[in-house]
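Write out the bound-state structure for manganese (II) ion.
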Amino acid sequence: MPQVAKLSINENRLQSQIDELALISENAPPVVTRILFSEADLRARAFIKKLAADAGLPLRQDAIGNLFVRWAGQNPDLPAVATGSHIDAIPNAGKFDGVVGVLGAMEAIRALQRAGIHPKRSIELIIFTAEEPTRFGLGCIGSRLLAGTLSPERAALLKDRDGTTLESWRRQVGWADGDLGSVRLPQHRYSAFVELHIEQGPLLDKEKIPIGIVEKIAAPSTLRLELTGVGGHAGAVLMPERHDALLAGAEIALAVEKAALTSGSTDMVATTGIFRIEPGAVNSVPCQAHLEIDLRDTQVRTRDCALAQIERSVREICRRRGVSSDLERVATDPPVVCDPKLVGLIAQTCSALGVPAKRMISRAYHDSSFMAQVCPAAMIFIPCREGYSHRPDEYSSPEQIKTGVTVLAHTLASLSSAD
Ligand code: GLV
Ligand code: MN
Ligand code: MN
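---
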């Protein structure tokens, strides 16, 4: 680690920026909801643009809306060091998921500037578009396009629940000048990527360890299921005649739970997080059900076995109930191993700073999973109270955030001084 003077992190300003951003929400505080292309999402982007302008840092936006805030290094032709995260938020979320890695990185850059550092390599803060899957059912759209693991053609055709395509949304918000194909990063744009994030699990909080260093990110997958049964009058259609789409969906949701519980893997988790029915009237037999299922494990083999088991259950349940199904694997991503050298550098940084750290797995997915496909990547976790996340009472203290920002800043200083 190079000798960097003690950095002064302005945790009060950082906390007030986190609080201010949290007020840009589709719901009243303390709930944060910022769905891609919502008015809140667009206003949050404007908030970031203003912060970058205030810091005197140039900002560029690509065709999917990823934002890049650049602190030019002494040798701007060298591959830059990247950091960043996301500012979109699922419905009924809190204020720290993603935001700590964006506003925290901005503060890390300002602290390095205040310390008089002149990095050799440029440092770029990336604010990724739609890490959350809320609008299109697929997460990490910005980073998938950057890494080239999502084709521009498929991205353009992604549809939200109203049937509006991503391409049509891009036109509506004025981003359609650029071609989605231009988002993909050229080779060697970045020498490394480090993401600061709350753990979203209980380990650091429980063990009172201020920093987690992520060695592996679990393998996520998403299924989308449309069930079509036969509707009718709730009083008139006798029970033996029914083909109720909700009941088929309910059995499937239980089969999803069972697939996780019987997988033999303690890391397997399965969630039916979306379940909508039509027509949604108390006196009408549900004719349609829409389910979205999230299934994850640290091992792709057990994850894929569970996926196959769920698919068999869908076929069996639908056959027995006379309900038709349309099942799509929206995403099946592999687990990601973080770069061992980068993990080692973060560990070294923590020990030089005297900050206890623990190597760990990320059970949540992150844009780092896709950045790992274009450059060495790793993550720095900080504790969050009780591990709560994706809920309004998500909380990390200013002190915990400050420690994370300090470790991030020193890591960026090391990476950006390397030849
Ligand atoms: C990211 O938000 C995830 O669902 O892991
Ligand atoms: Mn999230
Ligand atoms: Mn996140």
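---
The pocket of manganese (II) ion (ligand 3) is lined by residues 86, 97-98, 131, 197, 366 (CB under 6 Å).
The first helix runs from residue 11 to 22.
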